[in-house]
Fold this protein.
Amino acid sequence: MQNKKLITFTVILLLLVTFLLTKKEKPSAILNSNKNTKANTISLQISENNSLKNPVKNIQKVPETHVAVEPEVSVTIHQSTTQQSSDELSYLDVYRMSRKFEPCQNVLYRLVEDDAIDAVTEFENRIKHLKDLHPEWPTPAQISAVMEHANQCQQLLNKVKSIDLPEAVVKEGVKLANLYEIKQQLEQYLLTLKPKTIKEQAIADVLNLIVIWREHYQHVLDASKGDETLNQTQIENIQQQINALNQERQELSTEYQNNQDAEVREHMVEIWLAVENLKEQIVALKVVDPEIRKQVIFDFEVATEMLFASLRSSDPDVFYEAQRALELNRHNVRNFGYLPYKNHSNKDLKEPFVEYVSPGEVVKNLIGIQDDEMFGLVINYATQLYHCELGADCGPGGEWIPYFCHLGYDQLSADACNLDLPTFLRDHYLNSNQWQDVQFVLDLLRSLYAN
């Protein structure tokens, strides 16, 4: 076992050295502060002057820093790109298409069903609950933004159809399959393309590293679930009881829908509690091998250190991908910076996976705040602003403003539609205290990541 560990460590260490040399960047502040400190542990300490009892509500003001950076590459798909044949699409073109899937997903769902959707009407239906507060909505600026967005999503769909993706993308030769599957296939297609520029190679490096990191993350979960072999008979018997109770609960559910009987509902609750108790018994009967779990966590932490190093990249796309991956944020871009509701599959684990600390949790622990909602308010906006400083497109049609102008559901503001993100947040969205709090956290992010 010791020889196997030594070989594994040597191979991973070589990969780490090779990766860092090819990136040609300084090591992360988190990593460099103590060579024995893991990437996802707290090593940077805030000075006593900044250690406040209520750090977010009473954060002292720091000088505002506005970095005027010309966006490196817009997320917008321009007409000149859509006129190319699929053979001429570059690595960056396809990467942009995969990124555009998330903001376009609602429009794409409609377009798959009907090529002639009315995007403005769709938007009006989505904001009906806001009409009492904003009877003048949609404003001309919102209408213009909605129509432009729908046009970009239509271009995206046309371009995806023109690419020779795996056959599963098309059903019956006409309709596109599940959009999530299409996005996955587009990402797989991206892996077949060869990066030709320094920027494309940087993106490819971090995407490949994320695949490796997620595999190691899953290995930790698998090792933490425990082996059922030693108590397999008992576990199978308990599982049969669970199946029988679930069947009974399903029958009661049908009965309750017909008569709304309170006793039937109570019985359903009792069955649910019994099932949860049986599931806990199954978990208790599983056995975790501590040596295997220790080894897979070690491998995971090496990959984590490599991915944390990517947060120091000056490329906005590399930072974007690494940040979302490390935050376990795959489905909600609005939680860019911190996702408090992570799912480590704890209910299925014999031994909870508590060892991993994400980038947002690193900052949260440094500040010492306990309120997830309050912290989420400042860290997410601060991380978006840091992303802008790296060169991301943060104008009206860029990375973040559309979510405030028309893509969101509740947190919408017509003022956002013609502004850049820093101006909108400072002058129209956050009050002065909130803006100071965001600037404080932004300054902390710079100290952690900026070269």
Summary: The longest strand covers residues 170-171. The CA atoms of residues 392 and 433 lie 26 Å apart.
